[in-house]
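Weekly modeling sync, notes
Attendees: AB, CL, MP (scribe)

Item 1: holo prediction request
CL wants a bound-state model with adenosine-5'-diphosphate before deciding which constructs to order. AB pointed out that an apo prediction alone won't tell us much about the pocket. Agreed to run with the ligand included and paste results into these notes for async review.

Input as submitted:
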Amino acid sequence: MKNNIEAFGENVFGLPVMEQRLSVPTFASLKKTIDSGAELDAGIADEVAEAMKEWAMEKGATHYTHWFQPLTGSTAEKHDSFIFPDFKGGVVTGFSGDELIQGEPDASSFPSGGLRATFEARGYTGWDPTSPAFIKYDGAGAATLCIPTVFCGYNGEALDKKTPLLRSMNVLSEQTVRLGKLFGIDCGDTMAKATLGSEQEYFLIDVDLYAARPDLQATGRTLFGKASSKHQQLDDHYFGAIKTRVAAFMADLDLELWKLGVPAKTRHNEVCPAQFELAPVFETLNISVDHNMITMEVLHTLAEKHGFACLLHEKPFAGVNGSGKHNNWSISGPDGKNWLKPGDNPHENAKFMTIIVALMKAVDTHADLLRSSVASAGNDHRLGANEAPPAIVSIFLGDQLTDIVEQIEAGGASSSKDGGSISLGVDLLPKLPRGNTDRNRTSPFAFVGNRFEFRAVGSNQSPAGANVVLNTIVAEAFDYISTKIEADVAEGKEFNAALQEVLAEIIKEHKRILFNGDGYTDEWLADAVGKGLPNLVTTPEALEMLNTQKAKDVFAKYNVLSSEELESRYNTYKETYETLIGIEANTAIDMVKTLIVPAAVTAITEYSAVPAVAGLAGEMSSLLEQTVSGVAALEAAEGPAAEIVAMNKLRESVDALEALIPADLWPLPTYTEMLQV
Ligand code: ADP
Ligand code: MG
């Protein structure tokens, strides 16, 4: 089979295509905007638009769309054709700079969380030139030019996930560059960049089975289903040989993603049967987020083509592994180096330790915000079990790095585990072994050698939210450290001494956030709660953290989200959560009444006629009674918390019925059938 490597990027209007198709000054101007965030010169827009249109039409496109990321968490597009009447009875094509730069979709149906009333529902999309335009082919093969955009209200409030992400990247860059200067790194206008590698887990099940499960279709997860006798207990799926049908899907998936410039790298079977993972090579954060959104879309479209349904829900099947999106995050400094990689000299190591300590401060101060950034109805089922981190946010550094942190706290004391001591800016760090990385998977926020991995992000979530928080809180910690050191140095203190002092102070205050052990144990739970770490188990509790003065202050101070914008997110996510639980409840009620009860009645009737199985008929009857009263209880339940309790109770009797009712009468595909692809 051909490897198709040459297809990489063929559907992306990236720098190489731009260079070929734009005039020299236009390309130079656009490149400057892309590289250094310089303001876009509107004068070049017409030429860029025309070149984009020509290129897109050669690829078969007839339409373009401003592609944006509303608060729904997915992507949105409205297609416009390139067509204009020529007023002679025919048509001509055109695409102007104005159309490229700004769009005005009728935005009244997107969630705004109260930021706009329907009568003033105008929303604007604005071109984000830092993210390349691309061609998307739909299932039927029709091509559309997708132009990544931000989405704002008429007075500029962010109505999307991308605007705050870009703002948070800017503030992180500013503070990183400032911190760098203290370490003698001055790269002029060059920005620092956050980097992201977003591992994506997903399930594939046969599309016919999917079509026979109203719960999967309406809610993304199975509301009922008895565990199969063999699922992941033997760990025989993880990294196992990939079955032909799935391999064909994965090959197609990689190719489609490569064409779109998504650097899909790793593919493998995950722990649960029917579960898989795709990991891309990391990229600049906003590009990586766009690419993850594209990946989720392509997963769905291609699954359909291959006779599968792709499940991105965090917990489609109870009792087995859920799906997450490990968020591998680091900072690439203005010098282009990874600042979370331990360096080769004492100076670089002092900088490295500064970033580690800043992260301790950031994560400990705002553990609640990190938790709220991954709050969703789906993720509530996943966190805390089956290889997903618990709801308590803590940091894993590994023993060696923890030891160094402790030495800094002690002011360079010589009582370290290895008998040595670390003097910042003077000593070399001991080599941190690669194997030092956390493999126990219960740490929400783990240092893995050259980056942090935030593992609480749900498979179905946009990575934007978590990274907005991460960038902002790290910027705040950098700001704190720089401010302190700048003041001390201005007063004549020696740099390394000032650094040592501020890091020791931060460590003292925030070391409770460090935890290298098993995050599932009751001891840790008690210990963490005792230390005052927030344990926000459910989405409603977690979302309340967006309402605190602390949250408002940090987002407003760094111009990432105004109080109004933050409140609109709180409102939107809360409403989404409540609506979703309501949909789950109604779906459960419908399924029981129209599918489960009739099957149970048939089985009971048949069995009642045979004395030998009268006992089983009796068992089924009593479970059916429980089921019927369970439905009544669910119907009477008001509000998400009560609905969840009632759904769980109802599920118990339904799953017990599934164990008794003859297979040919059971109206739903079983876990055993679905988890086999
Ligand atoms: P593992 O299964 O060990 O977590 P994977 O290879 O599945 O490893 O995923 C690791 C992810 O981390 C990849 O997406 C990789 O590109 C990403 N990564 C590596 N270095 C960095 C970095 N400096 N910044 C952000 N992400 C990174
Ligand atoms: Mg990982």
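Recorded for review: The chain has 22 helices and 19 strands.
Action items: CL to compare against the apo run; MP to circulate these notes.
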